[in-house]
Amino acid sequence: MPELPEVEVVRRGLQAHVVGKTITAVRVHHPRAVRRHEAGPADLTARLLNARISGSDRRGKYLWLTLDAPSGDEQALVVHLGMSGQMLLGEVPNAGHLHIAALLDDGTTLSFVDQRTFGGWMLADLVTVDGSVVPTPVAHVSRDPLDPRFDIDAVVKVLRRKHSEIKRQLLDQTVVSGIGNIYADESLWRAKINGARLAEKLTRPQLTTLLEAAADVMRDALAQGGTSFDSLYVNVNGQSGYFDRSLNVYGREGKPCPRCGAVIRRDKFMNRSSFYCPRCQPRPRS
Which of 250, 135, 238, 243 is CA-nearest to residue 189? Predict the structure, then answer.
């Protein structure tokens, strides 16, 4: 699933290419792509028609376009990328996975392509939460480490009260958003902390170092266009990211740790996998 850097890459592409344009036609090719829009595809299509795209925004892994409707109301087009959703400009390489197409007033087509059909579009109202304007489905999501208003001390205080594995807390989008399985493992490796350790047992300096590591690893990934293991994650021009070549532990089971040379291990975790160095990140004693 795309994490913060991948979603931010897509947002930047949309900001550069579609903001300021008006939607002149919409066609929903697959009903599952609008299942989160409770009023149905006809309502979404009607409300998008002649709406002007006024901006793009993101919180954590959640992406949306702000729209100025012909009625004068402002609304948000929330884009769920799911496991394999793509926002593409121009020609779609695999029309069989085209779920929604929106024609813009400059002749460009903005397409939502989704091979695994977990993603989709929905329209939502905007609300103000903690001084920021976000769509109502995103109101419960905390700020992410790259947010200029991210309060690292406040998050550390929250984590210090959690009787739960620190990796589980990193993945909780109500505690800190934007971090998924890949960047959790990479952040924990950089901070030399095993993900199975209890959050409440970590010191304030350790938690601060971990959150700073999360911000650093996602900035590094963003600079390389995100992480692509296959063709499912691409930017709006269909190009893949290259951060997978810079991963230190994730997906590297059996390979040497770049820092100490110990063999990277993999453990099962929440129906996923955790990768770590047994020497740099020793597991807690039971």
Answer: 250
φ/ψ of residue 33, rounded to 5: -70, -15
Cβ neighbours, 10 Å, residue 284 = 11
Residue matched to tokens 């740790």: 257
Rg (the chain; Cα; Å): 20
User: Rounded distance, CA 154 to CA 156, Å?
Assistant: 5
d(CA 48, CA 39): 13
Distance in angstroms (rounded) separating the CA atoms of residues 152 and 176: 10
Per-residue pLDDT of the chain (286 residues; tens, 9 = 90+): 688 989 999 999 999 999 999 999 999 999 999 999 999 999 999 999 999 999 999 999 999 999 998 877 899 999 999 888 899 998 776 677 899 999 999 999 999 998 888 899 999 999 999 899 999 999 999 999 999 999 999 999 999 999 999 999 999 999 999 999 999 999 999 999 999 999 999 999 999 999 999 999 999 998 888 886 556 677 788 787 767 778 999 999 999 999 999 999 999 998 889 999 999 999 998 7
Euclidean distance between CA atoms 106 and 228, whole angstroms: 30
Q: Nearest-5° angle of CA 171, CA 35, CA 65?
A: 65
- The span from the CA of 96 to the CA of 74, in Å, is 33
Q: What residue ranges in 204-257 does DSSP mark as E strands? A: none
* Cross-strand bridge partners of residue 120: 80
Indicate which residues carry an active-site annotation: 2-3, 61, 272
User: pTM of the prediction?
Assistant: 0.91
Distance CA 10, CA 172 (A): 22
